[in-house]
């Protein structure tokens, strides 16, 4: 095992998106190839379901790898984004038949291109005789019991967050402090088209706002939390439940208020005197402050750091706002951009080196209600 820890393992990672697939090859911590493989939107739309896209996506990915001179058989492992799975605790999971079946059909009820991640990784791994993994899938659920309770019998809080990037940001910050993620209490945010705000206690994401379920703050593409009574009025006015679900996941926030999901456009419009844009931007920042402080409360007020990741963390105005309004809670550090490919490779390396043991996906949700 000591020798394995010295190796620079070669890991190929695959992160499918709506009209493209991000592919990366890592040797140790170093990225030797990163490429975004674009897919023809018309071709994708002709498929009946997400999983039916598998042969087409595989063909385009293999072409890109060949052009880059990458030989899949030289890899030590393959990692795919883990969509379609039932709620699990965080970690690295080796792809097994149950995981593959759930990814194929979207067992969690959410149809998303990330379902193709485990399928693509498993297909390459089987051909090359190597393991395939998923790392901190989107349905990572480590909520503490109190975070699950609502005031309605049989209705529980669940969580859908940018778990992969949230945990990688936390791990990186801990390393920068010479500490372990498992020894820290952190409020970690991913601020992009969707915004995740989460509380991390000693290596577990114990609370967070469900960005698919209509919780938390408004984001460029998501409505955030809404008053239930107002939603009922909205439905009675002739809107459908399908419309409301889309407001939670893609057509709310800036899209509904301003007709754009581009935060840079919103900022520019606000600076040019657009009152609606200024109000929406300021409201988003206001809500971000509230959510960060709520997660600090979930940690009992003991917070080692507040971390900001994701594309909007490039905004100096946003980062300065959080420092000004939340800096009294804990130091604020920005990690602009996403580390999803790096996080996927790092999870595989930890297993290959023996630092972590791969977890077994059973398909059984981590929470199925309370007994009493």
TrEMBL record:
The UniProt record lists the keyword Nucleotide-binding: yes
PROSITE patterns linked to this entry: ACETATE_KINASE_1, ACETATE_KINASE_2
UniProt superkingdom: Bacteria
GO biological process, one term: acetate metabolic process
EC number: 2.7.2.7
GO molecular function, one term: acetate kinase activity
Keyword entries, A-Z: ATP-binding, Cytoplasm, Kinase, Nucleotide-binding, Transferase
Keyword Phosphoprotein attached: no
Subcellular location: Cytoplasm
Pfam families: Acetate_kinase (PF00871)
Catalytic activity annotation: butanoate + ATP = butanoyl phosphate + ADP
InterPro entries noted in UniProt: Aliphatic_acid_kin_short-chain, Aliphatic_acid_kinase_CS, ATPase_NBD, Butyrate_kin
One GO cellular component term: cytoplasm
Stored Gene3D superfamilies: 3.30.420.40
UniProt xrefs under PANTHER family: ACETATE KINASE (PTHR21060), BUTYRATE KINASE 2-RELATED (PTHR21060:SF3)
Similarity-based family: Belongs to the acetokinase family.
Protein name: Probable butyrate kinase
Species assigned in the record: Parafannyhessea umbonata
Gene label: buk
């Amino acid at each position: 095992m000591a020798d394995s820890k010295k190796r620079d393992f070669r890991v190929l990672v695959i992160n499918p998106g709506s009209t493209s697939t991000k592919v990366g090859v890592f040797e140790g911590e170093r990225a030797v190839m990163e490429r975004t493989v674009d897919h023809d939107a018309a071709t994708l739309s002709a498929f009946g379901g997400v999983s039916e896209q598998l042969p087409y996506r595989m063909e385009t990915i293999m072409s890109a790898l060949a052009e880059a001179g990458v030989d899949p058989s030289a890899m030590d492992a393959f990692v795919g984004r883990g969509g379609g799975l039932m709620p699990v605790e965080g970690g690295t999971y080796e792809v097994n038949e149950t995981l593959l079946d759930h990814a194929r059909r979207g067992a969690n009820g959410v149809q998303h291109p990330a379902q193709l991640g485990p399928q693509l990784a498993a297909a390459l791994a089987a051909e090359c005789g190597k393991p395939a993994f998923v790392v901190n899938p989107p349905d990572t659920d480590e909520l503490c019991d109190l975070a699950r309770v609502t005031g309605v019998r049989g209705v529980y809080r669940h969580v859908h967050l940018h778990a992969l990037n949230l945990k990688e940001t936390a791990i990186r910050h801990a390393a920068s402090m010479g500490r372990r993620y498992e020894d820290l209490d952190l409020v970690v945010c991913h601020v992009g088209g969707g915004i995740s705000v989460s509380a991390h206690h000693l290596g577990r994401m114990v609370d967070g706002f469900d960005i698919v379920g209509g919780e938390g703050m408004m984001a460029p593409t998501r409505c955030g939390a809404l008053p239930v009574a107002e939603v009922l009025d909205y439905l009675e006015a002739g809107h459908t439940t399908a419309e409301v679900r889309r407001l939670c996941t893609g057509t709310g926030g800036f899209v509904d208020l301003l007709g754009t999901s581009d935060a840079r456009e919103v900022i520019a419009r606000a600076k040019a005197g657009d009152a609606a844009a200024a109000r929406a931007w300021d409201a988003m920042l206001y809500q971000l402050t509230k959510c960060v402080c709520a997660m600090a409360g979930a940690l009992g007020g003991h917070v080692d750091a507040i971390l900001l990741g994701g594309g909007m963390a490039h905004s100096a105005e946003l980062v300065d706002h959080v420092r000004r309004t939340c800096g009294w809670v804990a130091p604020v550090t920005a990690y602009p951009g996403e580390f999803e490919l790096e996080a996927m490779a790092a999870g595989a390396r930890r297993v290959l080196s023996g630092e972590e043991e791969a977890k077994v996906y059973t398909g059984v949700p981590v929470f199925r209600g309370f007994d009493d």
